[in-house]
UniProtKB/TrEMBL annotation:
This is Germin-like protein. Pfam families: Cupin_1 (PF00190). Keywords: Apoplast, Disulfide bond, Manganese, Metal-binding, Secreted, Signal. Oxalate binds at H109, E114. Belongs to the germin family. One of its GO terms (cellular component) is apoplast. Disulfide bonds join C30-C45. It comes from Salvia divinorum (Maria pastora). Residues 71-209 form the Cupin type-1 domain. It comes from the Eukaryota. Residues 1-20 form the signal peptide. SUPFAM superfamilies: RmlC-like cupins (SSF51182).
């Protein structure tokens, strides 16, 4: 009787267990073969006999980025495209350099959660929960602090210290992607119909035109 109950319980929760993690790797690695004509969700595997140490290597994450731009930030984001050995491993990293008041604008990663570490400076971070709450979860971080951005939620960073700042983040996708809120809404090609945006933001069409102008 106990065995039957146990099997029934396992059968009930098994779908949840299956969806709770990625399948175990079937081989040591699957270096991305960018030249393959095979199309899959990711990249097919390069012949192991063609794999070299450089497929697992990226240099330059120690280099200070150029922050002389409107946002005052530099993003160095090596993904599977820069490190072919990341293919199928479900991880990547990113370094961000911030000038004074530098901002990483509200954005989301459609394929990843993120954990951020402050290496230098003072950083304001935050994310917004989904509808209907739309609650802002925000904190000022100091050197050595760690903060998590949950999967798919819009989040941001800003240097609020008295000097330059640096953060390093790690994401659970080989190619997390990035959707910047303003770029997506006002910079799409072709553009989103003005009437849709007027109703969405409850502003005059002239305001929408001004918001679109920098992107077109």
């Amino acid at each position: 009787m106990n065995l039957i109950l146990t099997l029934s319980f396992v059968a009930t929760i098994w779908p949840s267990l299956v969806l709770g993690h990625e399948p175990s790797p079937l081989q040591d690695f699957c270096v991305a073969d960018f030249n393959s004509i095979v199309k899959v969700n990711g990249f097919p595997c390069l012949n192991p006999k063609q794999v070299t140490v450089d497929h697992f290597l990226f240099k330059g994450l120690n280099i200070v980025g150029n922050t002389s731009n409107y946002l005052g930030v530099s993003v160095n984001r090596p993904t599977v495209n820069e490190i072919p050995g990341l293919n199928t491993l479900g991880i990547s990293t990113v370094r961000v350099d911030y000038a004074l008041s530098g901002v990483v604008p509200p954005h989301r990663h459609p394929r990843a959660s993120e954990i951020l570490v402050v290496l230098e400076g003072t950083i304001l971070v935050g994310f917004v929960t989904s509808n209907p709450e739309n609650k802002l979860i925000s904190k000022v971080l100091e050197k050595g602090d760690v903060f998590v951005f949950p999967f798919g939620l819009f989040h941001f960073q800003q240097n609020v210290g008295s000097g330059n700042a640096v953060t390093m983040a790690f994401l659970d996708s080989q190619n997390p992607g990035v959707v910047i809120a303003a770029n997506a809404v006002f910079g799409s090609r072709p553009t989103i119909n003005d009437d849709v945006l007027v109703r969405a933001f409850e502003v005059d069409s002239s305001v929408i035109d001004k918001l679109k102008a920098p992107y077109h």
